[in-house]
Amino acid sequence: MLSLESITKTTQDWLFAKFSPQIALTIECVIVILLAITLFAVLGLVLVLLERKVAARIQIRLGPNRVGPGGIFQTAADTLKLIMKEGLTPDAADKFLFNLAPFIVMMVAMLLLAPIAFAKNFQIWDINIGVLYISSVSSLSVIGILMAGWASNNKYSLLGAMRSGAQIVSYELSAGFAVLTIVVLTGSLQISDIVAAQENGWWLFKGHIPVIIAFVLYIIAVTAETNRAPFDLAEAESELTAGFHTEYSGMKFALFFLAEYINIFIVCAIGATLFLGGWMPLHIGHWENFNHVMDYIPSSVWFMVKTFFLIFLIMWFRWTFPRLRVDQLLNLEWKYLLPISLFNLLLVTVIAIMGWYF
Amino acid sequence: MFLKDYISEVYNGVSSLLKGMRKTGYYFTHSKEIITEQYPDNRATLKLADRFKGEVVMPHDENNEHTCTGCTACELACPNGTIKIITKFDITPEGKKKKAIDAFIYRLEMCTLCNLCVAACPSDAIKMAPNFEHSVFDRSKLTKILNNPGSKIKEGIE
Amino acid sequence: MTNLAIKEYITAHAPEATYDETGEWLTIMVESNHLKPLAAVLHGQPMQLDFLFCLTCVDYKTHLTMVYHLTSTSNRNINIVLKANVDRADPIIETVSDLWRTAEFLEREVFEMFGVDFLHHPDLRKLILEEDFKGYPLRKDFEDPINMIKL
Amino acid sequence: MYNQTEIIKDTTDLGPEGELIVNMGPQHPATHGVLHLVVTLNGETIKKIEPHLGYIHRSIEKMCESLTYRQFIYVTSRMDYLSSHINNTACALLVEKGMQIEVPERAKVVRTILNELTRIASHELWIGAMAMDLGAFTPFFYAFREREMITDIMEDTCGARLTMNYIVPGGLMYDIHPEFQTKVKAFIKQFKEKVTEYEDLVTGNVIFQSRTKGVGILTASDAISYGCTGPVARGSGVNCDIRKIAPYDAYDRVEFDEIIETAGDSFARYMVRVKEMNQSIRIIEQLIDNIPEGDFVGKTKNVLKLAKGEFYQRVETARGELGVYIVSEGGTTPHRIKFRSPGFSNLSVLNHIAKGSKIGDLMATMGTLDLVIPDIDR
């Protein structure tokens, strides 16, 4: 069966047979970069369309349906429009920072792609501190947002950026604790180890209620971290017009937009890896036949299905709930999520030490 | 006590959120609830209410005759000067002069579609038509002459 | 409270007031400099006309008339129209915005539309028109050649 | 209003203690039109709000001075366009009062039904816009689905969806549509089924409640002093329903409750409007099967002339008390006409109740005041 693993393996063997190791590695790097950029573009197009379709269905509408069959080329047309638009820079803006900010946000999103296992043995970089790397790099994105808000020299942008700063810094904590529960259970920070530990069942099912709580906390925290409704205070359309990207237009705006969706994809991919077993197929106890059938589905499909399920969940939140107020947002974190996640971590540690999980 | 309140608060909050998600989830999975009207595509089947006030028209019968006597009641009733009537004098076969309209000028761009002219008309010469696709490339096309060229007043209308 | 009792009560406080009962509600006419004290009396006990539901000005070409429509939220049957003539050339009247806060905005509107000057108003600026607008649009002699209002 | 240079000067200067002056509007997603608020902020906290009006001022009062008593009614549809029917009713009632025109029973009942339908439509739109102000986009579409049924009914009977101009002095312009009753009944059925959705999505939602409860508190005495009417005042516990105080049309023969909430916060104002929709349904249910037969318009002269004098008519629109004050000199046109619009007074209280709250609270407060800018500017 043709799998992503065999493709990468043959490519690598062929490259190392043909060229010296240094050149082969360089070519591999170029291929990976090209693939990553392609993935970005495709994900951006697909996720924006998906969001619009989900929103439309929830809002008893049809959604985009004019460009191409069922409107599938709508986002491509939108991208074309954004590329052709002039990227305005306000007169009073700090021009260097203003133009730099979207790229910082974008780069952070790209860096996060490295340790994600898309399929069995299909990973850019299986770093041994994968989870730590993710949580540390993802917190960098706030710098880009603050930079954009400050450099725009617009009061709405500034307010949005400051809100975003407070929000991301606080929600990092619960997201970190939720991730830590899995690290405690697995005993490793490496992504491949975490996936391998879920071979006989996903942590969501193995780890009793504490892991389910951790999963819920994780989803809430990453929704906040990616500035998605109901925590979209940084943008807060009805309050701050567009928040930190009020002054951006054209492709610079598109980069922010793209980065938002890429971030959603990444946090959902990490969520899927940690709690839903990444590319691991669904295995149930001793049902050998069932497990065999499940094994026939390619691992990349498993990964994508889980990720998109989580993405759908986050979109579902967005189109159902009203937005929180800024002080309520921080209340929710410091008064509810943080105590619960601390207590939860304690429970999980007890479970892990006593070996009470399956 | 504090802990009990805390837990019930969290429980009530989460359950209210889930209730909302169930509602939106219901609509997500039931595509028959979609109410979008695909307007330019459904023009053939689109039916407006018969009373819809789209624009003022002057109905003519098959002999190209209307019932407007040129009394200017509609012009007086109009609150914003949309209607202008230019009259002329026809010579009837008996040799008598008879007042008739030369042009019934109607400026759609000024019309607020209030129906006061139709209500004021003593001989039911004008009525509201359910047309709504009024956009044109030139504003002057919105100034219309409602009586057809060569049209006459119907016999017996005074 | 009947109209007669109201009239007696008001006459006790403002003897110069004149009355008109031809309309739907009792109308009291006073001099512009007596308006504020009378308004304070009406606002206080026992009348308690605490609800100013309309404040406007009418241009009679010879003079301007300020019109105040008052009612009481505790007794909705009492409706009183208070009127005061002001000079057209130099319209000045005391503000009532300290009694009824709603008058603050309504008086600003009258100020720019009729040019009536309200003494002791906390924030008498234009509300609707531009700062440098000349003329008083709702006066009868106002003509704007550019933005035609009359048909 | 400032001119261009002054805006720039005014807003780039930081006030004392790092105050931030933000121009919200005339183009802002939450001001629903061209309301311009100059908001002084200290961080996220609002220190002062100053409304600047006039962006859509059409001088309707001056316009009406040159229109006859038949003609001026259509202009009032353009004031508070969400309750245009009720505005028209106010004007027609005033002319009827001034000329002692006898209105047929049928016209009275139909007017009452249409007024209540208008009120429901206005509240439906408000509920959607309110939820959207707070960041929930979906209820807007659900609310519009129900509102669409009302506009369809209006289209059938009045020939227009928003600015109807169906009411003339003396009665109605033409008789109701033959299917009017069945359509209204179908609407009532659907409305009763779907109104629970707002309960699930908006009213019961913990985020919505925490956003609105205790926000923008208006006390009863302030509500009276600031001249607030309608749901804004009733949310603070002030009895001010003109339909009860001075019944007009067929309101004196129907049973309904005046909704009073005493909390005075945004949630109370929200609840008043939601409950009012149910009361409107109750009124319609009482009348819809008992529309009397007969003429739909009373006998009127061709040229309407009001007697010399002053006339005042109050009606309850969806936003509060609308007063029409006409000074007549005995001619065919009014000498002076004044519209006491509910939004104008309700707006004046905004600074008072939103001061000291957060920017997010301003949206909730402003949303529950239910401002319609053409109504404020006239």
Q: What does it look like?
A:
The complex is a heterotetramer of chains A (358), B (158), C (151) and D (378). Chain A is mostly helical and 358 residues long. Chain A contains 15 helices and two strands. Chain A is globular. Chain B folds into two domains: 2-35; 55-153, Alpha-Beta Plaits (2-Layer Sandwich). Chain B has helices spanning 2-29, 73-77, 116-120; strands at 55-57, 65-66, 83-91, 97-107, 127-129, 143-145, 152-153. Chain B has a three-stranded antiparallel beta sheet with strand order 3-4-6, with no helix packed on it. A two-stranded antiparallel sheet of chain B has the order 1-5. In chain B, strands 2-7 form a two-stranded parallel ribbon. In chain B, a hairpin with a 5-residue loop joins strand 3 and strand 4 (97-107). Chain B is elongated. With 151 residues, chain C is an alpha/beta fold. Chain C has a domain at 3-88: Beta Polymerase, domain 2. Chain C has three helices and seven strands; from the N terminus they run H-E-E-H-E-E-E-E-H-E. In chain C, a hairpin with a 5-residue loop joins strand 1 and strand 2. Chain D is mainly alpha-helical and 378 residues long. Chain D has two domains: 4-52, no CATH class; 60-377, Orthogonal Bundle (Cytochrome-c3 Hydrogenase, chain B), CATH 1.10.645. Chain D is 48% helix and 12% strand. Chain D has a three-stranded antiparallel beta sheet with strand order 1-2-3. Chain D has a three-stranded antiparallel beta sheet with strand order 6-7-8. In chain D, strand 4 (167-168) and strand 5 form a beta hairpin. The longest helix of chain D is centred in the N-terminal third of the chain and has 29 residues, at 105-133.
